[in-house]
Each structure stands twice: as C-alpha cells, then as structure tokens.
Amino acid sequence: MTNTAPSVDLTQLNSFGVVATADGLLEFNRMDQVTDVIKLTQQQPYLILGGGSNLLLLGHLPCQVIHVTLSGWRYHDETNEHINITINAGENWHNMVMQTLNDGYSGLENLSLIPGTVGAAPVQNIGAYGVELKEYLQSVEAIDLKQGKLVSLDNRSCNFDYRNSYFKQNIGRFLITSVTLKLNKRFKPRLEYRPLNELAETATSSNSDSQSATSTLTALQVADKVIAVRQQKLPDPDALGNAGSFFKNPIIDKAHFLRLKSQFPAIVAYPVDDQQMKVAAGWLIDQLGFKGVTHNGAAVHTEQALVLVNQNNASGQAILELSKQIQQKVEKVFGIRLEREVRLVSEQCVTEYNFSNDNFANISHSPDSLNL
Ligand SMILES: Cc1cc2nc3c(=O)[nH]c(=O)nc-3n(C[C@H](O)[C@H](O)[C@H](O)COP(=O)(O)OP(=O)(O)OC[C@H]3O[C@@H](n4cnc5c(N)ncnc54)[C@H](O)[C@@H]3O)c2cc1C
C-alpha cells in the first residue's frame, strides 16, 4: 500500500508541474484504510494531497504523501425543492458539477471547471462568479487525525470565509473523506457577476418579458458560458503549469481604499461591507507592469497578472521568488500585503506529529521563515 521507493516523484501530481519528491506515497482509496492512515500520521510527517492544483511544492518533502482518491457518490434526502448528494473526496470536482447538472440539479454551475478534487473544495471554500461552495455545503465527513476518529462537521462548524475554512485554519488536522451538498431542483440563475450578466442581457433582448427571459435559461447553459470564459481567460495547467490565482484579493479598510482611489482613480475594488473593500489583486499586479515578467523559468501570465506560470522548467523556488518580488512591490506602492492563496509546501511546512505533547505542530508558513 505504501510506496517504499526511496523517493516518490510528485511532478505529475502538482498542477504547476514543478519537480518535487517525497519519502513515500499512500493511495487512500478505500475507507477500510482509515486505521492505517491514522497510524501513519501518528508516526511520520505527512502531506494530504488531492489534485495538487492549489499547492506550490519546494523540492524534496521529507514526508509521506496521502493521496486521496476515494471515489463514488450517492443522492439522498430528496424533497420537492432540493436533493442532497454525498460525494467521496477523491472525485474530480468539475466532473461532479457536470454530473449533477446532467442529472437535472442546479447550484454548482458557476463553479464549473475549477480543477481539483471534491475533498479539497471545502479547504479553501472554492468560489467563482459570485458563488462559494459554502452556499451549497451541508456537511463534511473527515478523519480528525488529532483525535484519531471519523467526525462530521456541519456547515457552521466549517467556519467558512473568503478562501478560508476551519480546515485551512487547522491544516493537516482533518482528512476530508466525503462532502454532502444540497442542490436545487428548481434553477435560480446567479448572473450578478460579469460576464455572466451578459446571459441575462442576451436573453432579455430576445424576449421582451425579462422574467420569462431568464426562465428559459438552463443551468447547463450557464455552465457552458462559465467553461467558455474560463478556457479563454485562464491557462490550462496541462499546457502551462499554474495553480490559478496565486494571491487572494486583499481586503482593506475604506480609509485606505479612499487614499488609494485618489492616487489611482482606476483601482478595481468591491465593497465587502460598510467598512471594508476587496481590491482586485490582479489589477494591483498589472499596474506594476508584472504581466509577462519572468524569473528563472517562472513567469507572470501575459493575460492574467494574478496567475503565475511554470513557463520553462521552473523550480518551485523560482516561482516562490517571483511571488515575493510581486509581494514586495505591491506592498511598497500600495501599502497592501498580498496573501498567498496557493499553499506553500516546503521541507519545513509539512505537518508533523509531535509525540511529546500529543499535539499537532504546523510549522510556520510565513514567507519570512524561508531562506531565499
Ligand atoms: C487553472 C486553475 C483555476 C483555478 N480556479 C479556481 C477558482 O476559480 N476558484 C477557487 O476557489 N480555486 C481555484 N483554483 C484552485 C484549486 O483548483 C482549488 O483550490 C481546488 O479546490 C484544489 O483542489 P485539489 O484537489 O487540487 O487540492 P490540492 O492542491 O491537492 O490541495 C489543496 C489543499 O487542500 C488540502 N487537501 C486536499 N485534499 C484534502 C482532503 N481530502 N482532506 C483535507 N485536506 C485536503 C491539501 O493538503 C492542501 O492544503 C484554480 C486552480 C487552477 C490550476
């Protein structure tokens, strides 16, 4: 079950396609392996891996990789309005979105084509085009590796926030085994975000009654639009290694925003509440002329400033260095510290089990703790 080769190649298991290795790898594909998984995590450092599309791996990781490939799903608890689906963690997220839409259930259409597994989706509360996973998530089943038992967390316990969750705040503690989502039987389009609002406009212009216009729209049509836009906008990791948005969109207070607005009138931002604004990180990076900038094989994508790419056999270290250049310049010019959305996994950053106090130690992920 555990690969006993001295080192396991992870190059094909991360969407940046950077060369990385680990001490060993366990394919976790059956629930009767739970005891083995718990034992392993009590004895050795480990990394929980799904599709590897939100990770930046740095060289050799002295740990066991637990590759979650649990498959299968089932519908249950159907009412007139809703149906629940429980999906095992190793299923591909996008395939499951299409499965539910083809089965006639809506809700996930705006989240089409996000790479990765279902089990990783709650970790950063995946979101796109005005919709976040938390709006449809009922519960998460996981192994609590700290307590060594299976647990169920309801939506509230997951503590979801923008690209954040209880799982991210306690990284390495929970291994998610399945996710239960509540889907709609009646389609309610979510078209507030550009360019999806074009769908409402197109439908309205060809039908004078706007109510019935959007009602002719199907969830599959929205998914098709999302897929087309994403394919046009974002580089395909199979063709050009990347992990999507490298940084989160920073949230700043209104006074700070107004100061920036007077200096940079074109700044792109959206209100979070009365006090705070969410600034488009891509706009900040683009303003500083980073599009197309390269560093030892790493590059800022020429179309999407928020996406760093492995252009020419870059190492994880090169991508990290480029990201630090961006962070430093953005902080200097705009007074904003960009936070990584992508999880950095280095020798020091794998989760280690600390035998002495029966507790988990998450070694610092702060960039300052890394020697560049
Ligand atoms: C081209 C591209 C576009 C993207 N667009 C978006 C987008 O629009 N919105 C968005 O939110 N994200 C986006 N992402 C980021 C990424 O797809 C998501 O974060 C996705 O959920 C990661 O899934 P994964 O299986 O690849 O996770 P991995 O990269 O393998 O892991 C990510 C984190 O989750 C943990 N993890 C993985 N599986 C489990 C599990 N079963 N239990 C517990 N922890 C686990 C890992 O330890 C790690 O900390 C994009 C990425 C790419 C490459």
Account of the protein in words:
It catalyses: UDP-N-acetyl-alpha-D-muramate + NADP(+) = UDP-N-acetyl-3-O-(1-carboxyvinyl)-alpha-D-glucosamine + NADPH + H(+). This protein has 372 residues and is α+β, with helices and mostly antiparallel strands. The chain has four domains: 8-68 and 348-369, Uridine Diphospho-n-acetylenolpyruvylglucosamine Reductase, domain 2 (2-Layer Sandwich); 73-184, Uridine Diphospho-n-acetylenolpyruvylglucosamine Reductase, domain 3 (2-Layer Sandwich); 197-233, no CATH class; 247-339, Uridine Diphospho-n-acetylenolpyruvylglucosamine Reductase, domain 1 (Alpha-Beta Complex). The chain has nine helices and 22 strands. It has helices at 34-43, 93-102, 166-169, 197-205, 210-215, 219-233, 254-263, 281-287, 316-334; strands at residues 8-9, 20-28, 46-49, 55-57, 59-68, 73-76, 82-88, 127-128, 131-132, 137-144, 149-154, 174-184, 241-245, 251-253, 269-271, 276-279, 294-295, 298-300, 307-310, 343-345, 352-354, 359-361. The strands form seven sheets. Strands 6-7-12-10-11 form a five-stranded antiparallel β-sheet, with no helix packed on it. Strands 1-2-5-3 form a four-stranded mixed β-sheet, with helices on one face. A four-stranded antiparallel β-sheet has the order 13-19-18-17, covered by helices on one side. The radius of gyration is 21 Å and the shape is globular. The protein binds flavin-adenine dinucleotide. Flavin-adenine dinucleotide (FAD) is lined by residues 15, 48-55, 68, 89, 114-117, 119-121, 123-124, 126-128, 167, 171, 174-176, 234, 237, 242-244, 343.
